[in-house]
């Protein structure tokens, strides 16, 4: 039997994730009291029809979420096999989600949401440390979360607990506040000054061909890929779950988009981590773009 224990921060998307895992053929139990986890695992193991089970537990089960560690220890001592998935999320995103849904954080108890989040982080810290998979949903679209879960539980691919976003942007609109690494590619030839290329973007082949005529493009991309591949395992070993790589030009329409696409393509060729690309400013300044 394959058993998955799903937990994580309230507001991180556990209910959505559980439905996705159910669609992969798992028998799912949502919001299970902590005290029943051991019994459910044992019952499922004795039922030949239940070959894949997913159990969702979180602080809604009470502040005894910390008791989960003792239960997991006992299961391991009994030789029970299970995998743990922990969904992480930035505080600001969790707060926004609670405001949008007008729901109450289970630990807020009449206080502000951020107080409940702080208390929850303290309670689940030890559980997070023993998770097999940590998925940060802060920037993930629903389909991207689904793709990550399929990679782990359906395709059985190797998975490192890191999700990388390659983000193009324009310096004229400000550096992305969530960028961990920022690279300036304004040294590359600028299609903005070629009239017939100006309306196009870095997603168009003529722009890509123009930018790639520069030897510096290929040299820079080689060096950037080498550095990123060096950093990834070091970030993972330090427990980092999200990495945002910002690549900027003047307007975020031509050069940064081309370079971001190039880096994303190279990283996609060999990866055991989550990966997405986003072009923040590609549609801005549509008539004058740079």
**Annotation field: number of helices:** 9
- Helical fraction equals 25-40%
The CATH homologous superfamily of the largest domain is named P-loop containing nucleotide triphosphate hydrolases
CATH topology descriptor of the largest domain: Rossmann fold
Helix/strand class = alpha/beta
| CATH class designation of the largest domain | Alpha Beta
What does the overall shape look like?
elongated
Q: If you compute it from the alpha carbons, what radius of gyration comes out, rounded to the nearest whole angstrom?
A: 22 Å
Order of helices and strands: EHEHEHEHHEHEEHHEHE
Roughly how many Å apart are the termini? 56 Å
Strand order of the largest sheet: 2-3-1-4-5
The CATH architecture of the largest domain is: 3-Layer(aba) Sandwich
Question: Sheet bearing the most strands, described?
Answer: 5 strands, parallel
Strand content: 15-25%
Low-pLDDT stretches: none
Task: Kindly report the average pLDDT value.
Answer: 88
**Overall number of strands:** 9
Overall tally of structural domains: 2
